[in-house]
């Protein structure tokens, strides 16, 4: 008869069992061996105890808070926080994790990701600097976990190009590399067909971002892409649509954003831009890119930007994602690769334009960090925090970053009570552009404004009460990060 977990720990001082479930991903995965030992000192926030609910169910989650002798527990891969767990529920505490025959300490999610990222960044650096990685170091790496993280940053092909210099590629990496090569070739063929039609129709076009950045990498396929971005003559969008649909593309989005979206199964997607940026960007960006005709270098219908102007646009695009939800490591790698490939940029021109765009500090930070990260130089404490932010973001960014950055922006980066009260007041007493955009009739008839102030919260209480409570909680609990 199988013994209960608590009995095994009481008799032997520890328990070793195979994990089932995904609630603690990425630190603990299905099939990992877990070493649970008897609790020998007071538990603290960050510990991962095994506990038994009153229902008899065994659970192993992380302590995220302690209040009045009771623990608040949450799985790293869950959002729900379980309260009311006491020492009487605790059976033992996780001390070690065994994965693929190697033993690892118990880490926080951030510690885990950054440990894996350190090895991934080393391999990427080898790829773009065209050096062979050290065999002994690779032998100590967890290539399965590096694969998962590199997928989140769209850097798997780059890692594969580094690994193949030292070892036969594992199947997953080999497939990722071949997929990147195939997709790149397919994009090149399709883009040539599209631009030929643009030439015939007399539509000017400007290839953007990854289309050009890939050529600065030692191997173009190192720079993975999900789509191709092209700026086109905004007066010819209907003609562009006819051309794309004539080439077998489906129009997934038209005339709703600053770009239209076209796709063709199984993997092709093109974004045809009316303008370089949409409405929800920095006012400095709007003004700077309102008209770029004087910056375009034309060769027939095909246009290009100078290396300096191209770099500025890449930075603006990166910054837009950076302040929204995070921009990931691929964008940082783009900066490193581009600057290495174009050492003769006009720094005086760049500094003057960066000042107009209000991006001087951001560009300097990204440039210095990229150079240090991909040459293996030692980082300052602040630079490490910056690298953590980018690494934990992934190439799509995270909802957590998005929520924090939005709240920080709303509060002016200030977590004081006065700042929070001002923001709550602004949410109640709506005015300015927000009033004109959402309630244009009231904006024109100011006498109705008092009724709006009463009507909005009453309406909200009936239509989305949870949303109001959630927003209020986020405002009051907001804490500025270092």
| SS summary, helix count | 20
Task: Quickly give the structural class.
Answer: alpha+beta
Largest sheet: 6 strands, antiparallel
The H-level CATH homologous superfamily of the domain at 5-107, spelled out, is Umud Fragment, subunit A
In CATH terms, what is the architecture of the domain at 5-107? Ribbon
Distance between the termini: 53 Å
Q: The CATH topology of the domain at 5-107 is what? A: Umud Fragment, subunit A
CATH class of the domain at 5-107: Mainly Beta
Unreliably modeled segments? none
- Tell me the number of strands: 16
Overall helicity: 40-55%
Question: What is the mean predicted local confidence, pLDDT?
Answer: 91
Report Rg. Answer: 27 Å
Q: What is the 3D form?
A: globular
Proportion of beta-strand residues: 15-25%
Structure summary:
With 482 residues, this protein is of the alpha+beta class.
Features:
globular; Umud Fragment, subunit A; five-stranded mixed beta sheet; 20 helices; six-stranded antiparallel beta sheet; 482 residues; alpha+beta
Overview of the molecule:
With 482 residues, the protein is of the alpha+beta class. Among the domains are: 103 residues, Umud Fragment, subunit A (Ribbon), CATH 2.10.109; 67 residues, no CATH class. Helix content is 49%, strand content 16%. It has 20 helices and 16 strands. Strands 1, 2, 3, 4, 8 and 9 form a six-stranded antiparallel beta sheet that branches. Strands 10-11-14-13-12 form a five-stranded mixed beta sheet. A three-stranded antiparallel beta sheet has the order 5-6-7, with no helix packed on it. Helix 5 crosses helix 6. The longest helix has 31 residues. The chain is globular and about 80 Å long. The model has no long low-confidence stretch (mean pLDDT 91).
């Amino acid at each position: 008869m199988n013994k209960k977990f608590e009995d095994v720990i009481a008799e032997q001082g520890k328990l070793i069992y195979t994990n089932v479930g995904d609630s603690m991903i990425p630190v603990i995965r299905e099939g990992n061996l877990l070493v649970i030992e008897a609790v020998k000192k007071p538990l603290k926030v960050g510990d991962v105890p095994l506990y038994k609910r009153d229902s008899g169910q065994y659970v192993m989650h992380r302590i995220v808070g302690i209040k009045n002798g009771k623990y608040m527990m949450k799985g790293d891969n869950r959002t729900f926080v379980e309260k009311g767990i006491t020492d009487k529920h605790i059976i033992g505490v996780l001390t070690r994790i065994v994965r693929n025959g190697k033993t690892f300490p118990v880490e926080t999610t951030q510690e885990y990701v950054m440990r894996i990222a350190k090895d991934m960044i080393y391999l990427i650096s080898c790829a773009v600097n065209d050096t062979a990685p050290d065999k002994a170091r690779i032998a100590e790496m967890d290539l399965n976990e590096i694969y998962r993280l590199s997928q989140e940053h769209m850097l798997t092909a780059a890692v594969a190009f580094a690994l193949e210099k030292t070892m036969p590629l594992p199947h997953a990496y080999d497939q990722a590399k071949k997929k990147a090569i195939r997709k790149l070739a397919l994009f090149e063929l399709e883009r040539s067909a599209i631009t030929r039609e643009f030439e015939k129709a007399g539509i000017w076009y400007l290839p953007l971002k990854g289309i050009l950045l890939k050529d600065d990498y030692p191997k173009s396929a190192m720079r993975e892409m999900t789509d191709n971005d092209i700026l086109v003559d905004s007066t010819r969008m209907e003609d562009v649509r006819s051309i794309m649909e004539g080439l077998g593309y489906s129009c997934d989005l038209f005339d709703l954003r600053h770009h239209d979206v076209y796709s063709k199964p199984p993997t092709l997607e093109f974004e045809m831009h009316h303008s370089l940026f949409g409405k929800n960007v920095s006012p400095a960006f709007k003004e700077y890119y309102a008209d770029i005709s004087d910056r375009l270098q034309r060769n027939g219908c095909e246009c290009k930007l100078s290396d300096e102007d191209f770099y500025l646009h890449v930075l603006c695009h990166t910054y837009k994602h950076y302040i929204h939800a995070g921009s990931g490591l691929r964008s940082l790698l783009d900066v490193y690769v581009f600057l290495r490939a174009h050492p003769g940029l006009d720094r005086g021109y760049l500094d003057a334009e960066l000042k107009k765009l209000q991006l001087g500090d951001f560009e300097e930070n990204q440039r210095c960090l990229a150079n240090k990260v991909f040459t293996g130089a030692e980082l300052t404490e602040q630079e490490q925090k910056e690298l953590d932010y980018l690494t934990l973001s992934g190439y799509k960014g995270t909802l957590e970053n998005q929520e924090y950055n939005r709240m920080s922006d709303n509060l002016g980066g200030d977590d004081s009570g006065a700042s929070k009260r001002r923001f709550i007041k602004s949410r109640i007493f709506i005015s300015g552009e927000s009033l004109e955009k959402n309630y244009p009739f009231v904006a024109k008839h100011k006498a109705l404004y008092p009724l709006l102030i009463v009507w909005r919260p009453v309406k909200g209480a009936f239509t989305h009460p949870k949303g109001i409570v959630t927003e209020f909680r986020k405002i009051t609990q907001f804490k500025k990060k270092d």
